[in-house]
Design a protein that fits this description.
alpha/beta
Length: about 200
């Protein structure tokens, strides 16, 4: 673990000097990364200190990057940021529910994607709805294949419950990708949106 005894006084002095230089440069970088991540600067300092300490204790390797600006820190930061983004936007999906001309209308608001599909499905209870149900996607956007599968799943639930389901204001790509719910989409050429969906099935 520790290789301190194998170093000569000359190399030890050089390594201490280089360590101090890195430490002084690391402080503003760790604080800057903390601001970018939206956390307190102290969190960035603690994170930089702990990673560097662990690398020093267990022994590093030539070319190893263990600071706050290391390659692994960048990769982990991107992954964590993506997960936080998905988690936060998953909470934004909601419906406004009202009855109109004998039909139950659900106006969907917020993006429908892999992070929000479960919340989307939890918003609907076919057994408690009347025989005719309309889902409006005018204020929403279907983003990926997980969203398409969620719409198909929901349509299947309404069909099994013996209810008539209408899907409005979906893009042409959505209609092509929907397998079970494709025939339930009502086309409005003037009002239907046009956007692409993140899926390889349209390639």
């Amino acid at each position: 673990m520790f290789t301190l005894g194998s170093h000569s006084p000359k190399s030890l002095r050089t390594e201490v000097l280089s360590g101090l230089t890195v430490a002084l440069a690391l402080v503003p970088e760790a604080v800057a990364f903390a601001f970018v991540a939206g956390v307190e600067p102290l969190v960035g300092l603690y994170a930089a200190f702990m990673v560097g300490l662990l690398a020093a204790i267990f022994g590093g390797r030539p070319g190893m990057i263990s600071g706050a600006t290391g390659a692994m820190a960048v990769v982990v930061g991107v992954i964590v940021s993506a997960l936080v983004f998905a988690w936060e936007h998953a909470k934004h999906i909601r419906v406004e529910k009202y009855d109109r001309e004998g039909s139950r209308v659900y106006e969907l608001h917020g993006p429908l994607f892999f992070g929000s599909v479960q919340n989307f499905l939890d918003l609907f209870h076919p057994e408690n709805d009347p025989d005719d149900v309309v889902i409006e996607f005018q204020h929403s956007r279907v983003a990926d294949h997980s969203a398409i599968e969620a719409i198909d799943t929901l349509a299947e639930r309404y069909i099994k419950a013996g209810k008539t389901l209408h899907l409005r204001h979906l893009s042409p790509e959505c209609r092509k990708l929907l397998k079970k719910a494709g025939d339930l989409v009502e086309v409005n050429v003037m009002e239907d949106p046009h956007y692409h969906i993140a899926t390889d099935e349209m390639a």
